[in-house]
Amino acid sequence: MAAGRARRLLGSLWIALLLGQPDPAGAAARSGSQSLLTGSLVRTFTPFYFLVEPTDVLSVRGASVIMNCSAYCETAPKIEWKKDGTFLNLVSDDRRQLLPDGSLLINSVVHSKHNKPDEGYYQCVATVESLGTIVSRTAKLTVAGLPRFSSQPEASSVPKGSSAILNCEVNADLAPFVRWEQDRQPVLLDERVYKLPSGALIVSNATDTDGGLYRCVIESGGTPKYSDEAELKVLPDPEEPQDLMFVRQPSSLTKLTGQSAVFPCVAVGFPVPYIRWTRNEEELITEGSGRYLLLAGGSLEISEVTEQDAGTYTCIADSGNDTIEAQAELTVQVPPEFLKRPANIYAHESMDIVFECEVTGKPTPTVKWVKNGDMVIPSDYFKIIKEHNLQVLGLVKSDEGFYQCIAENDVGNAQAGAQLIILDLDVAIPTLPPTSLTSATNDHLAPATTGPLPSAPRDVVATLVSTRFIRLTWRTPVSDPQGDNLTYSIFYTKEGINRERVENTSRPGETQVMIQNLMPETVYVFRVVAQNKHGPGESSAPLKVATQPEVQLPGPAPNIRALATSPTSVTVTWETPLSGNGEIQNYKLYYMEKGQDTEQDVDVAGLSYTINGLKKYTEYSFRVVAYNKHGPGVSTQDVVVRTLSDVPSAPPQNLTLEVRNSKSIMLHWQPPPAGTHSGQITGYKIRYRKVSRKSDVTESIGGTQLYQLIEGLERGTEYSFRVAALTVNGTGPATDWVSAETFESDLDETRVPEVPSSLHVRPLVTSIVVSWTPPENQNIVVRGYAIGYGIGSPHAQTIKVDYKQRYYTIENLDPSSHYVITLKAFNNVGEGIPLYESAVTRPHSDTSEVDLFVINAPYTPVPDPSPMMPPVGVQASILSHDTIRITWADNSLPKNQKITDARYYTVRWKTNIPANTKYKTANATTLSYLVTGLKPNTLYEFSVMVTKGRRSSTWSMTAHGTTFELVPTSPPKDVTVVSKEGKPRTIIVNWQPPSEANGKITGYIIYYSTDVNAEIHDWVIEPVVGNRLTHQIQELTLDTPYYFKIQARNSKGMGPMSEAVQFRTPKAESSDKMPNDQASGSAGKGSRPVDIGPDYKPPLGGSNSPHGSPTSPLDSNMLLVIIVSVGVITIVIVVIVAVFCTRRTTSHQKKKRAACKSVNGSHKYKGNSKDVKPPDLWIHHERLELKPIDKSPDPNPIMTDTPIPRNSQDITPVDNSMDSNIHQRRNSYRGHESEDSMSTLAGRRGMRPKMMMPFDSQPPQQSVRNTPSTDTMPASSSQTCADHQDLESTTGSYLANAQEEDSAQNLPTAHVRPSHPLKSFAVPAVPPAGSTYDPALPSTPLLTQQAPAHPVHSVKTASIGTLGRTRPPMPVVVPSAPDVQETTRMLEDSESTRGYPLSHSFCLPQNYEPDELTKEMAHLEGLMKDLNAITTA
Questions:
Q1: Cβ neighbours, 10 Å, residue 1310
Q2: pLDDT averaged over the chain?
Q3: How far apart are CA 1143 and CA 1151, in angstroms?
Q4: Cβ 189 vs Cβ 235: under 8 Å
């Protein structure tokens, strides 16, 4: 024994001398481990790895390819190559050769339809003798096929500015080799012209240079292959709008991380659409983004794709008139990557080790292990554990070498390796991370020291033998009877196998061990070795032990199958399992509904069984266990089957009807309850009929649509509807009949309902009964009523009820509390004006009245509070054109509304235009939120939800808000100019409203000039009212080019101008000229003077030159003085009228009113209702023009030679026989507007826009004309109610020709607003008798007017004075711009009032309160301030 110890000691010293050379530091660093000494020197890990590995290559036939490979080792490795798993013989290969660095060169790639010797998977193998072998990742060589076109470009046309796509589809391998030619010259690609990865060419924003012959070319080596040529024609812009459509939609893509993805999206239409993108329904910001790029035509390129980029991408094309969408999925795949690479391991023989390897990738990679280049086949000693790790049991010396973990999925593969070194037993293992060793072998050996070693343990016996484990016990060695410091290693192996495994005792001095995980009925050989601090001692004699045979239980029944035989039954079949020691006695069939936890079972004697009473169209799992005399055997794997489908067993839920109009009804419903579908719902069947008839109509809907619009119904007819669900098996039960009646006539739903006509409340102790009547205007759709109520504020709770309901009882209120109640009617446009009422609930002690009000009142309970109450009192405060602040209250917070927990609020908002707009949401931690980025003049709806932990409330009641208007941001569209038939000197300008009006358009200004480059203030301007889209301009010069621009305005200001449109007037004048054309054309040219009295002076502004331009300029200071004077005189008039009115008695008022009604109602005046009336004299809302005041001595410095001749407007003397032939005048304001809105600009130069007075108003509601008598102070005259009252203008005289319709329709008008009569009034006063009118008095010389004389007509007038005296009527006109709602009504009523311009004047009551007159005075002062500000500017 001593000799044996000496031999071991000498061996250890000899090994130490052989391995005594230290390891180079670089090698140690490269290997990632240390050369640690633990008592004696150990071998170090040798760095051996790949510097370059081959990558996938795409090549073409006849080309040369290099597959790169280079490996590093201290000893130069030998490089070999495998193709498709087989080594290549490169010695005798003429085409393939090994380069010095290890790369593989393939000359002249061979590829044909039936011979593809070079295509395949290549792998580089590096070997170092006496060290080991490593293999690289595999790389695929793909050879592109023969060039073929699957689709070729076709001739097409594209409007200028639009997009076109030219197809050239080739297989994916050839797409990189495609290029394009235009007229046989290469196409230069840029931001506008782009080649898709598929080979197709996109031409966006087409120009004339894009027209030509196109063809695509495949240059894949050898002769280029050309496609057919196709001509692309570029057409001019279309005049009519064209439907929006996709010419190329995005298709779903699968990309690797790091690659680029391109989603093509090309839409055409007119106007040219704008393309934007969303990902997972969130707006995608492409501007300024580093990775998202918008390509030609609107295609999207994503560079360097990451996993986070995966999702649904939606291309949205918006032309302003229409919107279309197309979707595509992006799937991102990830090649395998190592999260944890295998680590180098030191070990002794008989140890168990584990190489760890963690990988990730998408799809999930599979892992295989290679040892020295050869695949590791799992066995009893080589096992794959935890999916990827390699466990080696019972190491032997031949297990040394390089182990590689190779991870592979559909998109790539990767390898990582580690070295295993097996040390001699007397060489201690260096300290390494314990994760490399198993728990059985992680007790590292102590450093060997000189000293006696223990002898062999004695009396090794197996005290317990089972089928899969054995317990061994022994006595301490003779050399150490105590054995307290000894540890033991138990080596064991199967008989006949030389691979030993080892198990160590857990603590020193322990003399027994349990060996587990053995095989039944197998002979094992055991030996025990004791160890002390000097090393391992002698081994005990081998002990052979056979494990017990295992009881033979039945194995799993093979070929188990489950077949659904009906919607409620499944038949399961199987075969007899292998069994020993006894026959199969019976089987137990287990089954369970998928998703459930409880399993049911049934005993079966045979090899099949049918289970009945199952649920329809439900998945079940089945398994079988065989029993013999020893008990249950091994269970089969679960088999899953779904029972057959059937017709639904329940009808759809919640069928509701919504009457849309007189001919259609919208149906909404929900699917049948879960569990009753009995299959996949494939559609729904709707049956409907008139209530009065029994025969019905059937309409089927495919898919999962849960609504349907039934059209073509009869007016005012009640229909019944029922809905049933469909599966492939048939129709399920239908809902009950639900009825609804179509409207008698189509109601208006373009605006919100008006205010309910009445609201009554009746308070009780804990409830309030609310009753109401619908709005008076029954022509607007009402879809329901919203009742708001709360203590002190009506915004705490809101209840919505049906439009048919007239009563509601608000329950669960506090006694003796003051509640404010609001009622609003609503429809799909929004909620109308609220009606307020307040009530105090009765005290608790008051039981005098029972809570009964109307027996038949439909009762709607207040909703019960849920665990999380939704926020209440949601209000929207408009801050600007794009910002609204949302505020709310939370009843689940304390009264101070302080948030002390982690709750948060979600605000959502949307607009109903367009109808398919999706909600946007944002989170807030306070009780308000600022919503920004909204569209101007747009109605939004808002609601709020509260979330606390996992609990969320429902959405609150909605609040609505309309953003403020903004100036138009786009010009009027589709501006066209045409000549009027038969009138070559007259043109008609047509246009469409701006796309981005940002508010109600209140007017347009037409600019025109013969010089397109002239300054804009030198262009002639024509104002037009906002509801007109056409305008006539007369008296243009023949054969002259004109340029036209149009500008729109709303209440916020002027928008941008349109592009200039050119039009040349015809050369020859028409012979059949209309008389009124000739008359207006001759005005001011040799016409006889007007007999208007001895005191007549020419009006300010000069005489009429042949071109209609003024001959003497007017000082701007003079104009200011005149305007201020008019304002002061008007205020004096109002004061006089106010004093006069307050002194009138009530009886006189009544007489006045009666007389006024009788007179006004008895006369009609012939008029042309098509024409637009000009506004009142103070403020020309649409037609007011101020002459530019030029200080130049030249009478017409700019427009002297302008070819735009205009005629002045007329001044006509009137002889009134009833008023002693007093000369009376009326401004004829002629426009010759028989068909369209027209104007004849008289003697004016190009108007400067800053001189315009763009007051925003609408056409008046009522036309007022009064017959005035002459007065020395015409601005201060008064008026009585008179027949044929004609309003006298302060700027000129009026023509009393009742037969002249053109003139009659353009009289100055005053607004009549019954809701507040002071806005426009006429009050009688006593003028000085016998005075004459001097038109040279300071007045408002806004228009310089001269005209030829006209025939004199006599007009009868009647006046009613307070004391029976006859008073000549004079007007006082107080204009006021109507508010929004009144403006709308005036627009609607303007058509009907245009035919009554004379007799429908308006007389006012005389009993005005002083405070009303004070308001009116303040209103007039505001108007004067506005007027002064305009003239100053």
A1: 29
A2: 74
A3: 15
A4: no
Continuous H helices in 714-809: none
Distance of CA 195 to the CA centre of its chain: 28
Tell me the three state secondary structure of residue 888.
Answer: strand
Point out the least confidently predicted range of 147-161, 265-279, 499-513, 1195-1209: 1195-1209
Q: Measure the CA–CA gap between 5 and 451, rounded to whole angstroms.
A: 9
> Do you find a cis peptide bond into 363, omega within 30 degrees of 0?
yes
Q: What is the DSSP letter of 437?
A: B
| The three-state (H, E, C) secondary structure of 432-464, written as one string | CCHHHECHHHCCCCCCCCCCCCCCCCEEEEEEE
- 57-59 and 132-143: which strand pairing? parallel
Higher pLDDT: 219 or 17? It is 219
Q: 92-106, 322-336, 495-509, 1338-1352: which has the minimum mean pLDDT?
A: 1338-1352
CA atoms of 730 and 1075, how far apart (whole Å): 78
Q: What is the rounded CA–CA span in Å between residue 213 and residue 166?
A: 11
Categorize the per-residue pLDDT at 768 as very low, low, confident or very high, splitting at 50, 70 and 90: very high
Q: How far apart are CA 405 and CA 414, in angstroms?
A: 8
Round to whole Å and give the CA distance between 774 and 769: 17
- Give the Cα separation of 1229 and 1210 in Å (integer): 7
Q: Give the tokens for residue 220.
A: 């894949």
Whole-number Å distance between alpha carbons of 791 and 813: 9
d(CA 1063, CA 1036): 11
As a whole number of angstroms, the distance between CA 848 and CA 854 comes to 17
Give the highest mean pLDDT range of 864-873, 1157-1166, 1254-1263. 864-873
Q: How far apart are CA 1122 and CA 1116, in angstroms?
A: 10
**Nearest one of 643, 646, 557, 639 to 591, comparing CA atoms:** 639
pLDDT (mean) for 94-101? 87
Q: What percent of the residues of the chain are helix, what percent strand, and what percent coil, each to the nearest 5?
A: 10, 35, 55
CB atoms within 10 A of CB 325: 13
Question: Under a CB-based contact definition with an 8 Å cutoff, are residues 1298 and 1163 in contact?
Answer: no
CA 1024: distance to chain centroid? Answer: 38
Burial class (CB in 10 A: 0-12, 13-18, 19+), 701: middle
Contact yes or no for 489/503 (Cβ under 8 A): yes
CB 132 within 8 A of CB 48: yes
Look at residue 1219 and give its three-state secondary structure: helix
CB atoms within 10 A of CB 1047: 21
- For 703-717, the pLDDT digits (tens) are 778 889 998 888 888
Residue ranges with strand state E in 1233-1319: 1238-1239
For residues 77 and 31, is the Cβ–Cβ distance under 8 A?
no
3-state secondary structure of 296: helix
Report CA dihedral (182, 185, 189, 194) to the nearest 10 degrees.
Answer: 30
What is each CA distance from 104 to 124, 187, 1200, in whole angstroms?
Answer: 9, 37, 90
**Degrees to nearest 5, angle at CA 1396 with 1395 and 1399:** 160
CB neighbour list of residue 1142: distance below 8 Å, 6 or more residues apart? 1408, 1410, 1413
pLDDT of residue 380: 78
Are residues 1077 and 1104 in contact, defined by beta-carbon separation less than 8 angstroms? no
My answer on whether omega of the bond before 870 falls inside 30° of 0, hence cis, is: no
Residue 481 burial (10 A CB sphere; 0-12, 13-18, 19+)? exposed
Residue 1224: how many other CB atoms lie within 10 Å: 25
Q: How confident is residue 116, by pLDDT bands cut at 50, 70 and 90? A: confident
pLDDT digits (tens, 9 = 90+) for 1215-1227: 444 343 334 333 3
pLDDT tens sequence across 289-298? 778 888 877 8
- Nearest C-alpha neighbor of 785 from the set 833, 851, 857, 718: 833
- Residues 1256 and 1426: their CA atoms lie apart, in Å, by 13
Question: How many angstroms from the chain centroid is the CA of residue 690?
Answer: 41
